[in-house]
Design brief:
By secondary structure, the protein is an alpha+beta fold. It is 25% helix and 35% strand. The protein folds into 4 domains: 6-191, no CATH class; 252-388, Immunoglobulin-like (Sandwich), CATH 2.60.40; 393-494 and 634-645, Immunoglobulin-like (Sandwich), CATH 2.60.40.1640; 498-626, no CATH class. Strands 13, 14, 15, 17, 21 and 25 form a 6-stranded antiparallel sheet that branches. α5 crosses α7 (109-123), α9 (136-143) packs across α11 (163-185) and α10 crosses α11 (163-185). Keywords: Membrane, Transmembrane, Transmembrane helix.
Length: 649
C-alpha cells in the first residue's frame, strides 16, 4: 500500500498506459472509452484513501465492465462479449493465473476454468467435438504439460491413432496461438500513450474518438513498435555464441543437451540476477532434414521445480515465463526462456521440453513459414541447468544534455547479467494549452562493440528508476566489464498538438488543403459501407512534419469503428530510403530510422444500422503531428570514475 496523492496516482497511470489498454481491450476496444474508464477510476479515489496499484487495476476492469454493458459495445450473441472470451484473453494474452482472472472478473475460480473450456469449444469445429472421445479439458492439460506421465503416454498413443482428436488438439493450439499473437497486435496509438494526466471531460471532447489501429505495419502509429519490437528484437539478430570474440557476451557458458527423435536441444548460456533468469538455447536436427522450433507462443515446455523462485512475475501481465526464437545463419533455431529470479544464489533449473514443431527447409531466418508445413512432434528433452545469480552494478551518471531545446537528464546506469538499463528524464513541455511529448532513442558503445536496445526486457519489468524516470533497456554487457562507454543519443521522436478542421467537399474530389505549408490531397472517397477516405502527401525530407494524426467528424452519433493505415518512406542515418518492410529486414542499424508518410487511409465501418449517404463524415480533423530528429549526440562515461549506487531494498 502506498500513501495516496493525485500526482502519484497519475504518474503511475502514465507509466502503465499500455498495461491499462491491454486490460481494458476485451471489454471496450475503443481508446476513448478506455481512457474514460481510466479517468473514472482515478477520480473514484478519495483524497484520504491509500493508493494500491493492484486495487486500481481491479477497479479499472470493473469500470470497463460497467461501460461495456451500458454502451452495448458488441452484439449480444457475439462470443467476443462473453466471459468465455474474457477468460481466454486474460489467460493467453495477459498470461494470468486462474486466481487472478477470478479476482479481475469477480467470478469463482471454478467458473474461470469452465469458461476457458467453453471458450475453446466455441472456437473449434463442432464436428471435431462430437467425434473426439477425449475432452477439450484433457487435451488442453495434455498440451500444457499438466498430466502425469501415465496419462501423457495414454493420450499420446490415442492421438497417434485418432485423426479427429489430433485435429481437435491442433485447433486448440491454433486458438491459443491466435490469442498469443493478439498481444503483439494490440498497439494503442501514440497519442493514447502520451504522458498526460487522466483527461478531464473537456480534454476528452477535444481529443475525440480514437480508433483501434488494425491494418498495415506502415502506419506511423505502429512505427515505434515496429522499430522497437519487431526490428529491435528479431531483425537485430542477437548473437549468443559466447566463444566468438567479435560478439557480445550474454551470459555464463554452460553446455547441457538432450537428444530425442534425432533432435538435439542444447542450453548454451545462462544469465541470472534478482529481476529474472534467462536461459539461452538452440535446437538442431541431427539428420539435417528439417527445421525444429519451440513454438513462439505456446507452452511446449515446463519447469519442473516449482518452489525455487522468488514468486514475483517477470511480466506485469502475469506470466512467469515467455519465449523468443529466430534462426541463426546456419538455420539452427535459437531462443531464450525468460523465468523469474531464483530464491537462492545458486540452484538447478530443470526444463522439460515435451513438444516441438517440425518445419520444412526453406523457413527464413526470422522464423516465417507456411503454416501448412508445420507438424508437431512429441518427445522428451529434459535438461538440468546449473544457474548462479549475480548482483547488479549501478553507476551514477548525473549529467544533463541539452538537445534541441530539451534538457535530457541521465540519472544512472544499472548493469545486470540479464540486461543494461539507462534511467533518464526529459522535461516535457506545455505551452499555452498545447502539449509536446519527446522521447529519445539510444545506443551504447563499449569495447568497440555496439549494444542495441533489447525490448524483450520491457521497460515495465524494471522499476528501480526514480519517480518520473524513463528506463531504456539494452543488451547486457555485464560480463564484458568495460571501463569506458559511449552513450549515443541517436534520435528524438516528438509529438506536437495541433488542430485543423477541413470540410470535405464530396462534389469536388480530389480536393487540396494546406497543413504546415504542405499540400495534402483528398484523392478519393469510397461512398459505401465501409467508407474509405484516401489522402496523399508530397514526399519531402525537409517538410515540417513526418506524419500527422488524423480523425474525422460526423454530425450524428453512429456505432462506428475506425481503421487507419499509412504508406510512406523510411530513411536511415545515411539517407538511404526504404519503401517496404521487406527492405528494412536487411539493414544493420534500424534505430536511426525516420518515417515520412506519403499516403493515409481511413476506413469507417458502420454497425447495426442501415447506411446511407447522409452518414458521411463532414470533416477531416488533424489533431497533431510527429517529427523525428537525428541527433548523434554522444556522452563519454568512465565507469572507473563513476560513483556506484545501491538501489536494492
Amino acid at each position: 500500500m502506498e500513501t495516496n496523492n493525485f500526482d502519484h496516482v497519475t504518474e503511475w497511470i502514465k507509466e502503465h498506459k499500455r498495461l491499462l489498454y491491454m486490460l481494458g481491450y476485451p471489454f471496450l476496444e475503443d481508446e476513448t472509452m478506455i481512457e474514460r474508464a481510466i479517468n473514472q477510476t482515478a477520480v473514484g479515489y478519495k483524497v484520504s484513501e491509500q493508493f494500491d496499484h493492484e486495487e486500481f487495476k481491479l477497479r479499472f476492469v470493473k469500470e470497463c465492465l460497467a461501460i461495456s454493458v451500458s454502451k452495448s459495445i458488441r452484439k449480444a450473441n457475439d462470443i467476443l462479449c462473453t466471459p468465455y472470451f474474457q477468460c481466454l484473453y486474460f489467460k493467453y494474452v495477459l498470461h494470468m493465473e486462474t486466481r487472478e482472472i477470478s479476482s479481475y472478473l469477480a467470478i469463482p475460480e471454478k467458473n474461470v476454468e469452465e469458461n476457458l473450456i467453453l471458450g475453446f469449444e466455441a472456437f473449434v469445429d463442432k464436428d471435431l467435438l462430437r467425434n473426439c472421445q477425449i475432452s477439450v479439458s484433457k487435451l488442453l492439460h495434455y498440451h500444457e504439460g499438466f498430466l502425469n506421465f501415465a496419462e501423457y503416454k495414454e493420450i499420446n498413443k490415442f492421438l497417434a491413432e485418432d485423426d479427429k482428436c489430433s485435429q481437435l488438439l491442433e485447433k486448440i493450439i491454433i486458438t491459443i496461438d491466435e490469442f498469443h499473437h493478439l498481444k503483439s497486435t494490440l498497439i494503442p496509438s501514440p497519442y493514447f500513450l502520451e504522458g498526460n494526466r487522466p483527461l478531464t471531460e473537456a480534454q476528452m471532447k477535444r481529443k475525440t474518438i480514437r480508433q483501434r489501429i488494425f491494418t498495415t505495419i506502415a502506419s506511423l502509429c505502429l512505427l515505434t513498435v515496429i522499430i522497437i519490437s519487431s526490428i529491435g528484437i528479431e531483425e537485430m539478430k542477437h548473437r549468443w555464441k559466447l566463444w566468438m570474440s567479435d560478439q557480445v557476451a550474454y551470459g555464463e557458458n554452460v553446455y547441457v543437451h538432450a537428444i530425442d527423435q534425432n533432435v538435439e536441444i542444447t542450453v548454451t548460456q545462462v544469465a541470472a540476477d534478482d529481476t529474472q533468469t534467462i536461459i539461452y538455447y538452440e535446437i538442431r536436427d541431427l539428420e539435417d532434414e528439417y527445421h525444429y522450433n519451440t513454438d513462439l507462443y505456446n507452452d511446449m515446455f515446463e519447469i519442473i521445480e516449482k518452489d525455487i523462485w522468488e514468486g514475483r512475475y517477470l511480466d506485469f501481465y502475469g506470466t512467469s515465463r515467455s519465449m523468443s526464437r529466430f534462426l541463426d545463419e546456419e538455420g539452427v533455431s535459437q531462443g531464450r526462456l525468460f523465468l523469474p529470479p531464483l530464491k537462492d544464489d545458486q540452484d538447478t533449473v530443470t526444463v522439460r521440453f515435451h513438444k516441438i514443431e517440425q518445419l520444412n527447409k526453406g523457413i527464413d531466418r526470422y522464423g516465417n513459414y507456411d503454416p501448412r508445413d508445420r507438424k508437431l512432434i512429441n518427445g522428451e528433452w529434459i535438461l538440468e541447468i546449473p544457474v548462479t545469480k549475480y548482483e547488479a552494478v549501478t553507476f551514477e551518471i548525473d549529467q544533463t544534455k541539452e538537445v534541441m531545446g530539451q534538457n535530457i537528464y541521465l540519472s544512472h546506469l544499472e548493469v545486470t547479467p540479464t540486461g543494461t538499463f539507462l534511467a533518464y528524464r526529459i522535461e516535457q513541455v506545455s505551452k499555452a494549452g498545447t502539449f509536446e511529448y519527446h522521447d529519445i532513442q539510444f545506443t551504447i558503445k563499449a569495447n568497440d562493440k555496439e549494444y542495441f536496445p533489447d525490448y524483450h526486457l520491457e521497460r515495465g519489468f524494471y522499476n528501480r528508476g526514480n519517480n518520473g524516470d524513463h528506463i531504456f533497456p539494452f543488451e547486457s554487457f555485464y560480463y564484458q566489464q568495460p571501463s569506458e562507454l559511449e552513450i549515443i543519443l541517436e534520435r528524438m521522436h516528438s509529438n506536437y498538438d495541433s488542430m485543423l478542421e477541413v470540410v470535405i467537399d464530396y462534389n469536388s474530389l480530389p480536393m487540396d488543403f494546406e497543413f504546415l505549408n504542405q499540400i495534402i490531397t483528398v484523392e478519393e472517397v469510397v461512398i459505401a459501407n465501409p467508407v474509405v477516405i484516401r489522402l496523399t502527401e508530397q514526399f519531402d525530407e525537409n517538410r515540417s512534419y513526418d506524419h500527422f494524426h488524423i480523425n474525422v467528424h460526423y454530425e450524428n452519433n453512429h456505432n462506428i469503428s475506425y481503421g487507419m493505415s499509412s504508406d510512406g518512406v523510411w530513411i536511415d542515418g545515411d539517407g538511404n530510403q526504404y519503401k517496404s518492410y521487406e527492405e528494412l529486414r536487411g539493414i544493420d542499424h534500424p534505430y536511426s530510422l525516420r518515417y515520412i508518410s506519403t499516403e493515409q487511409t481511413i476506413e469507417l465501418h458502420y454497425h447495426n444500422i442501415e447506411w446511407d449517404d447522409s452518414m458521411l463524415p463532414e470533416k477531416i480533423i488533424i489533431q497533431g503531428y510527429s517529427k523525428s530528429h537525428s541527433l548523434n549526440e554522444r556522452i563519454i562515461i568512465n565507469l572507473n570514475e563513476q560513483k556506484r549506487l545501491k538501489l536494492r531494498n
